[in-house]
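Supplementary notes for students who missed Thursday's class. We covered one full example, reproduced here. Read the sequence, then the structure, then the short commentary at the end.
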Amino acid sequence: MEIPVFNLTKKGIEGYKSIDEFFQNVKDKTIYVIDMDSLKGKEINFKILSKISKVYDVWYEFNARWMNDVSDVLISGAKIAVMSGERIKNKVIKHSLEITEDLALRSEDFNTLKFFV
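Structure (token representation):
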């Protein structure tokens, strides 16, 4: 199964003028959304996540900085929370794994990946 990938910024989903235009054009059931602003250290875009998750099964990639980020992303509607970012702390990973199995990790750090597994 191939899942389409979309970049999200504070302005919206890249390549689309509005959420309505996105809804009209994207017919897939499952989508992968990368919160670009979150990866740059800004806030997670819960507003758009909550809108799109009503229509799609969303795999949501974001910078997990705090203990509650994963649960907040799941409560906002993501089907799978994809933790990412330059430095994900092991205590955030451990806490997240204790609360859910709907979790994935994207990292290039072998030690972080090993801890997650």
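Commentary. The longest strand covers residues 57-63. The mean pLDDT is 92. If anything here is unclear, bring it to office hours.
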